[in-house]
Design a protein that fits this description.
mainly alpha, two-stranded antiparallel ribbon, 15 helices
Length: 306
């Protein structure tokens, strides 16, 4: 490889970590918020796909990408709220309901999104981080989603709020010991419904990033399983919003290896490297989800439910 190819490859991986990692960041933060309350949402794949479709449709119909971002967040919040409400009923299982909601969300998105496959919607403006370089490959690779700074700020605020605010304490109490929360007179069901809904809205921003920035179009395979991968990503981040930033960058960079190789003019192994995020997910689950063990940082209610 020539020096220019190495630069293009490195820039592609770094740029991919920023671009591809943005949806991972929002979805993992949404799931982190949900799981902190003691509830797991395996329907995040449906939330992500439905919000991606809603964001694209909102931007296309309104002519504004920011209206699309709002539509994506609302769609994600509504589907997650349904999950939260159903799981509050007696005898309803979180995992089974999540799988059902995943199918509902993807089904609705595919049905309602049929007319949106061909049109183009206004895109979220990019932040150019590669202006320092004379290389067009570097400048192109370092185009960053304007939602990324919002995701970074949100991760920091969530981490601070979990530790230093009354609402963060209530959320962690509901997730660690539902009996203690009830003994103090708080409604665990209400806390979890609110947390699940807000988590869905945050994940919905990840869906908006998919269709309104990268790859910037709507199709039925837009998410590539990122909603399900986010569950493993939260485990890897040990339920810490701050660590979700690094985990999202890692998964984003892993997902960008294949396209980066292609942009550098390397054709071999392209499709093989596209499997890296899924292999990484499998490795993380194998290493962290051992029978009889509890992952460090896991909310107590999730641990007792396994």
């Amino acid at each position: 490889m020539t020096p220019d190819q190495w630069i293009a490859l490195f820039s592609g991986i770094v740029g991919g970590a920023l671009r591809v990692g943005t949806p991972f960041l929002f979805v993992s933060l949404g799931e982190c918020l949900t799981e902190k309350s003691g509830r797991i949402n395996l329907g995040l794949e449906g939330v992500l796909v439905l919000s991606a479709m809603a964001a694209f449709g909102g931007a296309y119909l309104s002519g504004s990408p920011w209206v699309g971002v709002l539509a994506g967040a609302l769609a994600g919040g509504l589907l997650a709220a349904l999950h939260g409400a159903l799981c509050s009923l007696k005898g309803v299982n979180d995992v089974a309901t999540g799988i059902a909601l995943m199918m509902l969300g993807t089904g609705l998105a595919f049905y309602l999104g049929k007319p949106l496959i061909q049109p183009q919607a206004p895109q979220i403006p990019a932040i150019a981080l590669g202006l320092w370089s004379d290389s067009s490959a570097v400048r192109s690779a370092l185009q960053v989603n304007m939602l990324l700074p919002l995701g970074l700020l949100l991760a920091l605020v969530m981490g601070w709020a979990f530790k230093h605010t009354r609402y963060g304490l209530l959320l962690r109490m509901a997730g660690d010991s539902a009996h203690a929360a009830r003994a103090l007179g708080y409604s665990v069901a209400t806390i979890r419904v609110i947390a699940t809904t807000l988590g869905g809205m945050v994940a919905g921003l990840g869906g908006a990033s998919l269709t309104l920035f990268y790859p910037g179009s709507w199709n039925e395979g837009i998410s590539s399983g990122q909603g399900l991968i986010a569950v493993a990503l939260v485990i890897f981040a040990r339920w810490s919003p701050g660590r979700c930033i690094g985990a999202a960058a890692l998964f984003g960079g892993a997902g960008a290896i294949g396209p980066a190789l292609q942009s550098a003019g390397i054709g071999w192994g392209y499709h093989l490297f596209n499997t890296v995020p899924y292999v990484l997910t499998l490795v993380i689950l194998v290493l962290t989800c051992k029978p009889g063990s509890v992952a460090q940082g896991s909310p107590g209610e999730l641990s007792s439910a396994r």
